[in-house]
DNA sequence: TATTAGTGATTGATCACTAACTAAATAATA
DNA sequence: TATTATTTAGTTAGTGATCAATCACTAATA
């Protein structure tokens, strides 16, 4: 029943287990980030994984679901990143910023994917995007609440705004656009 | 030499002058905003204008240039909107916000177009986008400078961040995401 | 007569997605 | 243990739809 497991022969003689679904998502993030949802082709994703193009449709119903799965993966990483966040009120924002900057360095393509998702006029993708943003917002509000902020929504809103500007600066290749603070 | 001028017969017997290029751009903004760059078709734009699809290519070299022309038009409106901005330091931000909110109400599709442009992986479109954002930023910095702000870049950066969050809230249909201030 | 404004028909390329198949691993059975 | 059946993991080949872009043309105007 485990559709995800399989084996490949590596250069040596050992056999290493591999999860095709994960591999495909990994490649999909890169290809989608590089070319955008509509320009990216399932053939490009398949080539990057080293499988045939039709095989993608054995593991994902269609291109839309592949994209959504990749997008959800990206949101899960953000949530995981902030899940452990905890600091006194006067340090919380700085810590949050630091965590996010690290994430942007290690997984820029997942950020770019999300920026692209904003503009995709596809109902299912939009819903997934709405849900993701809402979850991140809720999580951050809980963190700012826990730190004792009186108006966590205001703090979080500012944090989200600056985060978005960061994302856009990254996506457009405009480092000078990154938020400036004193 | 005036490629833009022509006439159409309206329902009455009079003849009204018309600028096809402008008409096409007007429709293009709507169609692109509704379907996104790649899903929007030149046929949809043509239908909205009431001309044949090939005629678009008499006035625009290709789809990319049509989109860029529409995008530039959107940026020009923003620049025009803020061009007259002038207020004492303690009112400037509020005035700027009011102007932008008005713009978002009167021309939401131009805002959505810009949000979409962020995610389009096309070199020419990206360059146009970079130039547009830079121009808006420069203009706002001059306004905040004129009002006597000590660190206009910081103020403008915050303004841009909140503006972007506004744009995203509009594009995703998430009014609850709009910036919160106290 | 030349230019402007416009159309109908077509095409070449691209791509998501399907169908029909195979090879290998694993489990069941004699 | 050898043999057969079944599932898993994957492939090759192809199709139907979509669309930007071109070409060759016409009708009206100046």
Report on this model:
Chains A, B: InterPro entries: Homeodomain-like_sf, HTH-type_TetR-like_transc_reg, HTH_TetR. Chains A, B: This is TetR family transcriptional regulator. Chains A, B: It holds the Pfam family TetR_N. Chains A, B: It comes from Paenibacillus phytohabitans. 2 copies of one chain form a homodimer. The first copy, chain A, is mainly α and about 180 residues long. Chain A has a single domain, classed as Tetracycline Repressor, domain 2 (Orthogonal Bundle). Chain A is about 70% helix and about 5% strand. Chain A contains 8 helices and 2 strands. A two-stranded antiparallel sheet of chain A has the order 1-2. In chain A, helix 7 (about 125-145) crosses helix 8. Mean pLDDT of chain A is about 90; it is low at about 1-15. The interface between A and B is large, with 39 and 39 residues. The first copy, chain A, binds a DNA duplex (30 and 30 nucleotides) through loops.
Give me the secondary-structure topology.
The structure is a homodimer of 182-residue chains.
Chain A: E1 5-9, E2 15-19, H1 20-35, H2 42-49, H3 56-59, H4 63-83, H5 89-106, H6 108-119, H7 123-146, H8 152-172
Antiparallel strand pairs in A: 1-2
Chain A binds a DNA duplex (30 and 30 nucleotides) through loops.
Protein name (chains A, B): TetR family transcriptional regulator
Keywords (chains A, B): DNA-binding, Transcription, Transcription regulation
Pfam families (chains A, B): TetR_N
């Amino acid at each position: 029943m485990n559709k995800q497991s399989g084996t490949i022969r590596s250069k040596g003689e050992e056999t290493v287990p591999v999860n095709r679904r994960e591999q495909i998502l990994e490649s999909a993030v890169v290809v989608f980030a590089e070319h955008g949802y509509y320009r990216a082709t399932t053939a490009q994703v398949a080539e990057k994984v080293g499988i045939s193009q039709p095989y993608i449709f054995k593991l994902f119903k269609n291109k839309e679901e592949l994209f959504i799965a990749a997008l959800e993966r990206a949101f899960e990483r953000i949530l995981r990143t902030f899940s452990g966040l905890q600091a006194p009120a006067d340090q919380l924002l700085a810590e949050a910023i630091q965590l996010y900057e690290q994430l942007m360095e290690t997984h820029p393509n997942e950020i770019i994917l999300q920026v692209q998702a904003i503009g995709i006029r596809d109902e299912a993708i939009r819903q997934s995007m709405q849900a993701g943003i809402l979850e991140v917002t809720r999580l951050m509000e809980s963190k700012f609440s826990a730190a004792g902020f009186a108006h966590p929504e205001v703090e979080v809103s500012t944090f989200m705004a600056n985060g978005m500007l960061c994302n856009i600066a990254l996506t457009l290749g405009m480092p000078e656009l990154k938020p400036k603070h004193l």
